[in-house]
């Protein structure tokens, strides 16, 4: 079998990825054949895994595929892949960093506006027939005078910051390290950042290192006029602490595109009429899904053509051999 027709295991039915892989590779559809059968029938031939948005690639699967060379993830986050195991086996992992940046940043500002100006609630007020002579939707909070803190100043965080500047909002940030050449004030902890702002936008990477980073202390520091926006990963926010903060008025409101236990609907969060919750759709435009799918396919095509991966993750760096 020539490299151009290498065996690829595709974990989930993402139509643009299926269409993109078909001309180049022998594709095995994991959701149709199952993990054990895939390993039994094609395990020794599979040289790549194309990973959909939700699938888990654990150390056991990586070890069971002795010919595996590359894992291409659909999405920026790759915490569902055991990258340490991949590195031990000499397997490169790629993601689609860059493709959804602008879309997610747009959505973050949309969520911020929706939460502060209560846009979904105003729409419901109208559709429920509440607006009429002498009846008006209650006055809302405003963006004017707000100070924004960005938790995680990666590509998406920087894109959010640029948009905030366009709205005339001062920006500060926290990340694992202070970044050179960044014009925004840096705070050395999420709590100190929250204390300095009244609007916290979460764009950090998911995974064990950021689990529960936004906890009760951070929410208390954000304060009673505080707005929390999360377009990153639900695991970053301590959800029980957030529920308590919303019940007690510790913060004003929250706008969440991600949450714990998704896709199970968070009934406790939906019980708050002033909270905005969306179904992890920040990157969910046709344009961006097509771009992300294209990058998954192009990473694999580039790898098997000998040019190397286009967007390897830091834990599995690649140097041209």
Task: Provide the descriptors you would attach to this structure in a database record.
11 strands; NAD; 2 domains; Rossmann fold; oxidoreductase; 36% helix; 6-stranded parallel beta sheet; alpha/beta; 321 residues; NAD(P)-bd_dom_sf; elongated
What's the quick description here?
With 321 residues, the chain is α/β, with parallel strands linked by helices. 36% of the residues lie in helices and 13% in strands. A six-stranded parallel sheet has the order 7-6-8-9-10-11, sandwiched between helices. Strands 2-1-3-4-5 form a five-stranded parallel sheet.
Summarize the topology.
Elements: E1 7-10, H1 15-21, E2 26-29, H2 30-33, H3 35-42, E3 46-51, H4 59-63, E4 70-73, H5 83-88, E5 92-94, H6 101-117, H7 119-127, E6 148-151, H8 155-166, E7 171-174, H9 190-196, E8 199-202, H10 216-222, E9 227-230, H11 239-248, E10 253-256, H12 267-270, E11 276-277, H13 286-304
Parallel strand pairs: 1-2, 1-3, 3-4, 4-5, 6-7, 6-8, 8-9, 9-10, 10-11
Helix pairs in contact: 1-13, 6-8, 9-10
Explain what you see:
The structure is a single chain. The strands form two sheets. Strands 7-6-8-9-10-11 form a six-stranded parallel sheet, with helices on both faces. It is built from 13 helices and eleven strands. The chain folds into two domains: 3-97 and 287-304, Rossmann fold (3-Layer(aba) Sandwich), CATH 3.40.50; 101-277, NAD(P)-binding Rossmann-like Domain (Rossmann fold, 3-Layer(aba) Sandwich). Helix 1 (15-21) packs parallel to helix 13. The longest helix has 19 residues, at 286-304. It has helices at residues 15-21, 30-33, 35-42, 59-63, 83-88, 101-117, 119-127, 155-166, 190-196, 216-222, 239-248, 267-270, 286-304, and strands at 7-10, 26-29, 46-51, 70-73, 92-94, 148-151, 171-174, 199-202, 227-230, 253-256, 276-277. By secondary structure, the protein is of the alpha/beta class.
